[in-house]
Structure formats: C-alpha cells, structure tokens
Design goal:
The chain is α/β, with parallel strands linked by helices. Helix content is about 40%, strand content about 15%. Helix 3 (about 35-50) packs across helix 5 (about 70-80) and helix 4 (about 55-65) packs across helix 5.
C-alpha cells in the first residue's frame, strides 16, 4: 500500500520498493475521463490490428476518425496501457540500464515439446468504466495458458503470483521468455526463475516475433471474448476471461495444432521433461 505525505519516504521511492510504476499510483488517485477510456479502447484495437503503429500513426488515424487528440496524449495513454509499437527491425534506442539485460535465446530454436519454453506478457483489458491488466503464462509449444491473473495496477506482484501458480500446477520449463518490462525485470520475478535454475530469455525491445506465441493468444482473446463483452466490473471480467481460457485450453480447436485444443498437446509431453 502506498501512503501519501510520508515525511521520510517519497511516492517515487514507495513505488520503486513495491515494483509499481509511478503512473499507476497517480491513475488510482486521479482516474481517467470517459473520453480517455474511449480512446484507450480504440488504441487497444488499433494496436491489435496494426502492432507496428506508434503514437504518431495512431494519433493520425484517430484524428481522421474525428477525435481531436495530440501525440502527447496518445503517448501517455499508450504508456498507461503498457503498449509499445512492435518493429520489424531492431529498435536502436538505448537499453534500460536499471536492470540486467538477458539475451534472447529462442532465435532459430526448434521448440518441439511442452515445457521447453514458457513465455509471459501483460495486456490491457477494458471495463465499462475503467480498465485492468491481464498477465498470462503460456507454454510456447502447445499454446496452453498455464496460469493468469488480473490486476488494477502494473506492479510485479500479480506477475509473480501467476508465475508461482504455474510452477505449482505444471512444474517448470527449461527456458522462460519475457519482454523487458519492469514487472519481469524486478528482483522478485527474476529470483523465482533463478532459484529454480531456469534459463532467462528476454525479447529485444520493440522486436516483432520475439514473443509471438503469446501475442497471437492476446489477439484470439480480444477478438473472441473481450471486444464482444462490456465487463461491468473486475469480477465480471475475471469470470468471463476464466471461462474463455478454460474453453481455449481444453475445447477450442487450434489452427496451428492441426485443430487440436492446446491442453491435449500439452498432456502428450514426454516423461523426461524438465522437472
């Protein structure tokens, strides 16, 4: 819990200790206008369809659709949503020196069995009046969603919780792939992997296809569930998303798995998998 007006500890320091981006605190305190919530929904849809679009192109598209917005506003909302453009070539911006940079281990790798590689990511989920964040842990080969959590802040705690749930239910992978988000580079998250001798792989910033397995799952979830609903509360979102993930794992035929549901492929894993 963050406490305002502490004499010895600033808001910034409290956020850093908890692994929470500072804007998450100010969002909770201030909230967002109806127009901004509408814009965030539109930004999310545009990002699903055109992941390489940055704030400038999204601003231009929204202006063509009649919204009087500037780039600064779009950039702030994209940051709040945890959205960045995905590029087809390396992003040459400076890496974040606040954390250790782990190499990307999956390039040209044949991921041919379950529990060889797990991956994770966070996406924005709109509510009727507000929004929440969803984190999921995915088995790369079988496309199975191993665990997931919802949160109203972008802190590291719900990510660590989802990670530990996956460990408890399914053991561990040989390699765990993430992006370089603060939630996944936090000490608490990295420690869970290091303590289990799991190799850590991290996407190059803004690199297309580095985490393609979970990006494709987000698209499926958004178009087959989230965009069709108007969740009135976080509880309703959790119930509906949970129901969808259960169907996705165990019932819905998956195109890349020759029409077989992900969990059927996952359950065929060899007995000598990573324990």
């Amino acid at each position: 819990m963050i406490v305002a007006n502490l004499p010895d500890v600033s808001i910034c320091e409290q956020c850093k200790d908890l692994g929470i981006p500072r804007f998450s605190y100010y969002y909770q305190a201030k909230g967002e206008s109806e127009l901004n919530l509408e814009l965030m929904d539109l930004i999310d849809r545009l990002h699903m369809d055109f992941p390489s679009w940055g704030s400038r192109k999204i601003r231009d598209r929204l202006r063509l659709d009649g919204y009087k917005v500037n780039r600064k506003r779009i950039r702030r909302l994209m940051s709040l949503m945890g959205i960045t453009a995905i590029y087809q070539k390396p992003n040459l911006s400076r890496p974040n020196k606040a954390h250790k940079i782990y190499p990307y281990l999956l390039r040209k790798m044949n991921i041919d069995r379950p529990d060889l590689v797990w991956c994770t990511d966070i996406t924005y989920i709109r509510l009727h009046r507000g929004f929440v964040y969803l984190v999921a842990i995915l088995d790369w080969h079988s496309k199975t969603v191993l665990s997931w959590e919802l949160s109203n802040t972008l802190d590291s705690h719900f990510c660590v919780s989802a990670l530990n749930t996956a460990f408890d239910r399914y053991g561990k992978p040989q390699i765990f792939n993430t992006d370089q988000g603060t939630q996944f580079t936090s000490n608490k998250f990295i420690e869970q992997l290091a303590d289990r001798d799991i190799k850590i792989s991290m996407d190059g910033k803004g690199r297309a296809l580095d985490n393609v397995a979970i990006e494709r799952f987000w698209r499926t979830l958004k178009y087959e569930e989230v965009y069709l609903k108007d969740y009135m509360s976080m509880k309703e979102a959790r119930e509906n998303i949970g129901r969808f993930i259960q169907l996705y794992n165990s019932y819905r035929p998956h195109d890349s798995l020759q029409g077989v549901p992900p969990m059927e492929v996952y359950n065929k894993k060899p007995l000598d998998r990573a324990a």
